């Protein structure tokens, strides 16, 4: 095994990483073990119901509650992270980004950690010497930082990974009007982010447009979300208006097709909560790129 990955002391798979994070944060939830498990089990159920009704109610889960954050990580992060890794592996343009010596990443709405874990999984499976990575995680919930700020430390990752956590509340247009750091990114990700903010209406679409506008020429965007035209259709519309080209697109049933991913890594928790992590979903996906500009000012499709 490559020395860089060997420092992890574990296989860098989504369920393995999430297991480590859950083990490290489980005791942070107050109350005795029995009540704690009942609260988490109820939160898993309620979050699922909230997402089913979010287009009608206009309200998502309250991630200020540590129980909800724990429940979300358990139920959704492994499968979402796998789909980020999978999407990179499907796109030669996305894979080419990680051939550089240094890569700058922006995970938009990446507080739960799916994007970063998925990227690390891809690099693990690719093998070879990884690039130095600077990962900028932008999210509206400051408390997600408590879950993921120690990720590199807890997993004994090398110093080649640096992270920064930025608070950007989509509803506060003054706070994100100039997302200048995003314009430095080589690759940006939006993993089940648009469906979280769509209920905000115009501020949500203005935010997505601002991010797309600031993407530098040649930057690649990874997009995964629910298969709902209200989400992917609007993203496609905004992307066209900002000049992004679609490199890969699709929609349909997605699963964790990876014999090396072991969902039973979380069996200790599934027994506690009476529920398993998600393994399937009805998903839409895109890989897009901001075209390069030639010396004559013309748009070029070649990286």
* Alpha plus pi helix count: 13
Number of domains: 1
What is the radius of gyration computed over CA atoms, rounded to a whole number of angstroms?
Answer: 19 Å
Poorly predicted ranges: 1-10
Give an account of the 3D structure:
The structure is a single chain. This protein has 303 residues and is α/β, with parallel strands linked by helices. Helices cover 45% and strands 19% of the residues. The protein has helices at 3-6, 14-25, 33-57, 66-90, 92-97, 114-126, 144-148, 151-154, 173-176, 194-197, 202-214, 229-241, 267-273; strands at residues 102-108, 132-139, 161-167, 187-191, 220-226, 245-255, 280-289, 292-293, 299-300. It has a seven-stranded mixed beta sheet, with helices on both faces. Strands 8-9 form a two-stranded antiparallel sheet. A hairpin with a 5-residue loop joins strand 8 (292-293) and strand 9 (299-300). The protein is globular, with a radius of gyration of 19 Å. The protein starts with a helix and ends with a strand. The relative contact order is 0.16.
């Amino acid at each position: 095994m490559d020395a860089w990955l060997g420092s992890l002391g574990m296989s860098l798979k989504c369920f393995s990483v999430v297991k480590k994070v859950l083990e490290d944060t489980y005791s942070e939830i107050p109350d005795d073990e029995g009540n704690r498990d009942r609260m988490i089990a109820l939160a898993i159920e309620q979050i699922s119901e909230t997402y089913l009704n979010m287009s009608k109610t206009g309200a998502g889960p309250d991630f200020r509650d540590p129980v909800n954050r724990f429940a979300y990580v358990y139920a959704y992060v492994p499968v979402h992270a796998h789909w980020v890794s999978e999407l990179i592996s499907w796109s030669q343009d996305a894979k080419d980004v990680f051939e550089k010596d240094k890569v700058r990443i922006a995970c938009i709405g990446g507080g739960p950690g799916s994007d970063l874990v998925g990227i690390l999984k891809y690099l693990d499976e690719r093998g070879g010497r990884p690039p130095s990575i600077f990962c900028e995680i932008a999210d509206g919930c400051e408390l997600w930082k408590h879950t993921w700020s120690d990720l590199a430390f807890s997993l004994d990752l090398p110093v080649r990974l640096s992270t920064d956590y930025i608070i950007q509340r989509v509803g506060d247009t003054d706070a994100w009007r100039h997302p200048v750091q995003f314009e430095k990114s080589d690759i940006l990700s939006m993993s089940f982010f648009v469906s979280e903010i769509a209920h905000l209406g115009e501020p949500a679409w203005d935010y997505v447009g601002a991010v797309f506008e600031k993407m530098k020429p040649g930057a690649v965007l990874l997009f995964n979300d629910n298969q709902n035209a209200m989400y992917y259709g609007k993203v496609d519309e905004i992307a066209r208006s900002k000049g992004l080209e679609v490199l890969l697109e699709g929609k349909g049933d997605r699963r964790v097709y990876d014999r090396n991913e072991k969902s039973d890594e979380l069996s200790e928790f599934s027994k506690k909560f009476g529920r398993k992590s998600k393994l399937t979903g009805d998903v839409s996906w895109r890989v897009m790129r901001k075209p390069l500009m030639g010396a004559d000012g013309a748009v070029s499709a070649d990286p």
